[in-house]
Amino acid sequence: MKKIRWGLIGAGRIAHQFARDMSFVPNGVLSAIGSRSKVAAEAFGAQYDIPHRFDDYQSLFECDEVDAVYIATPHNLHLAQATSAMAEGKAILCEKPLVTTPEECLEFQRAARHHDVYAMEAMWTYFLPAIRKAKSWVEAGRIGEVRRIQANFGYPIAYDPSLREYDRDLAGGCLLEMGIYPVALAWLFAERDPIDIQAVARTAPNGVEDDVTAIFDYGDMTAALSTSFRCKLHNWATIVGEEGLITIPDFWRAHECHLYHLETRTEHFQDGRESLGLNYQTVAVGEDLAMGRRQSTVVPLEVSLAFQRHMDQLRRHFEAVPS
């Protein structure tokens, strides 16, 4: 089997998670690490036995020993970095959110088409076995027609305007940082745009949103979604149908899901994995590349555009809302 040679840019927390899970990726190998610091690149490379180490990103993009690039940098940098990597013919797996606006997403799409390269948003949740099992239960009619989707994701991050999460110039705020997960979960089970979106939000002293609650109205169903820097939320997802429901604890990193008929649990799935779960999307990208695809069938760029449109609609509700 020809292994995809991965280059990784950024040496922060998510990059470490991606690198650790590469041991569970039979069709890939970490070939290069790029960081803004030579010391950081050398330390990261030594920790994960990565042969090629760069203190700039462009050198990694130009490296002949790299087939695909995983972008693990702040989301306001994604578009420019991905475009530079695409220009060198590299496949792209880019951390979520892919970009920060619908307009940027369209530009990202155009760049991928222009350079004729593979590109996917790293919505790793979609590839987790428990999420796929829950989706299969819905598709099999196990809960009847879906009528409600509930999902929330939040962890307390104390206000500090110097933090990236609260920095307006770095596209800070809980919507892009954490809210992408509930928004993506709603799309996965609704598979269409809502006819209306309403939201209530609170903002930090510098005006960056730090708590958002939204209702997506689809006409025949609703989605109640929330995200927060102010408090730890339940972080579960619930898919409610006419005949039953599915619960997914910690849905964003799901290990399990439960199927109910009324109050009776009729089935339970647990994946028993040893990895963090980032390996599933990485394997899928490798399979796509082996098949010559330019897009994922699970997270095509049109789906990423839907995420951006929905978050943009939400943003309009709280841009001028006081804390």
UniProtKB/TrEMBL annotation:
<dbReference type="GO" id="GO:0016491">
    <property type="term" value="F:oxidoreductase activity"/>
</dbReference>
<dbReference type="GO" id="GO:0000166">
    <property type="term" value="F:nucleotide binding"/>
</dbReference>
<comment type="similarity">
    <text>Belongs to the Gfo/Idh/MocA family.</text>
</comment>
<dbReference type="InterPro" id="IPR036291">
    <property type="entry name" value="NAD(P)-bd_dom_sf"/>
</dbReference>
<dbReference type="Pfam" id="PF22725">
    <property type="entry name" value="GFO_IDH_MocA_C3"/>
</dbReference>
<protein>
    <submittedName>
        <fullName>Gfo/Idh/MocA family oxidoreductase</fullName>
    </submittedName>
</protein>
<keyword id="KW-0560">Oxidoreductase</keyword>
<dbReference type="Pfam" id="PF01408">
    <property type="entry name" value="GFO_IDH_MocA"/>
</dbReference>
<dbReference type="InterPro" id="IPR055170">
    <property type="entry name" value="GFO_IDH_MocA-like_dom"/>
</dbReference>
<dbReference type="InterPro" id="IPR000683">
    <property type="entry name" value="Gfo/Idh/MocA-like_OxRdtase_N"/>
</dbReference>
<feature type="domain" description="Gfo/Idh/MocA-like oxidoreductase N-terminal">
    <location>
        <begin position="4"/>
        <end position="120"/>
    </location>
</feature>
<feature type="domain" description="GFO/IDH/MocA-like oxidoreductase">
    <location>
        <begin position="131"/>
        <end position="246"/>
    </location>
</feature>
<dbReference type="InterPro" id="IPR050984">
    <property type="entry name" value="Gfo/Idh/MocA_domain"/>
</dbReference>
